[in-house]
Design brief:
By secondary structure, this protein is α+β, with helices and mostly antiparallel strands. It has one domain: Roll (C8orf32 fold), CATH 3.10.620. It is 29% helix and 20% strand. The strands form two sheets. Strands 1-9-8-4-5-6-7 form a seven-stranded antiparallel β-sheet, with helices on one face. A two-stranded parallel ribbon has the order 2-3.
Length: 214
């Protein structure tokens, strides 16, 4: 049922984004001409990411697939895999701020039991890579959420569009269906390089945001 629901989301996003019955996030889709995020040049990586790469260099090394156009076909099997991993990590990891865990404002880690938004995304990325997804198709992404707070998600690049894996919700969605302002993300050419997703280049807010699960 989850796969069918996710396929329906894709169809809805592709064919009916501008319908009168669409919610606010889907109405936003009509403003976009592309299913893919638009890039506006290079950006300065989040300092938490830089520290993460120093601590986990193996997670940031370019691979033989780096620099290639690695977009998967969003088959039901691929969508099911995204859905499964997103739900699994959202259940596995309990929300906690970096201040609570480490006594600092920002620290990116691959979590084992607790973490904040970027930690969820990093673990999802790691699991999907272990399942055969190329790192160039799985990009850490910084946004401003519906409250204007800094937040991190994982972008999965497919032929049908850019999908978002988010610790706030279990449902995997096309990027424009989220009520977010997209700030920056990793470049698929090199995991150490970040690119701006906003034509107005400015520094993102701190993204150490804890999610309060109900």
């Amino acid at each position: 049922m989850r796969v069918k629901a996710l396929v329906l989301i894709v169809v809805s996003g592709l064919l009916h984004a501008g319908s009168a019955a669409a919610d606010n996030s889907r109405i936003r889709a009509a403003e976009h001409a592309s299913l893919y995020m638009r890039v506006f040049g290079q950006a300065i990586p989040p300092f938490g990411f830089v520290q993460f790469c120093q601590a986990y260099p193996q997670e940031c090394r370019p691979t033989p697939t780096s620099g290639r156009e690695q977009r998967f076909n969003a088959t039901p099997e691929r969508l099911s895999e995204l859905d499964e991993v997103n739900r699994y990590v959202n259940r596995l990891i309990r929300p906690a701020t970096d201040q609570e865990l480490f006594g600092v404002t920002e620290r990116w880690v691959i979590p084992t039991d607790k973490g904040d938004c970027e930690d969820y995304a990093l673990l999802k990325r790691k699991i999907l890579i272990e399942r055969g997804w190329p790192s160039s198709a799985l990009l850490m992404t910084v946004v401003r959420d519906e409250l204007g707070e800094g937040h991190a998600v994982l972008t999965a690049r497919t032929l049908q569009g850019d999908f978002i894996l988010d610790n706030k919700v279990d449902e995997v969605m096309l990027w424009y269906m989220k009520p977010y302002e997209y700030i920056m993300r990793q470049s698929f050419l090199d995991p150490n390089v970040w690119v701006s997703l906003n034509p107005q280049a400015y520094s993102p807010a701190a993204i150490a945001v804890v999610r309060n699960r109900q």
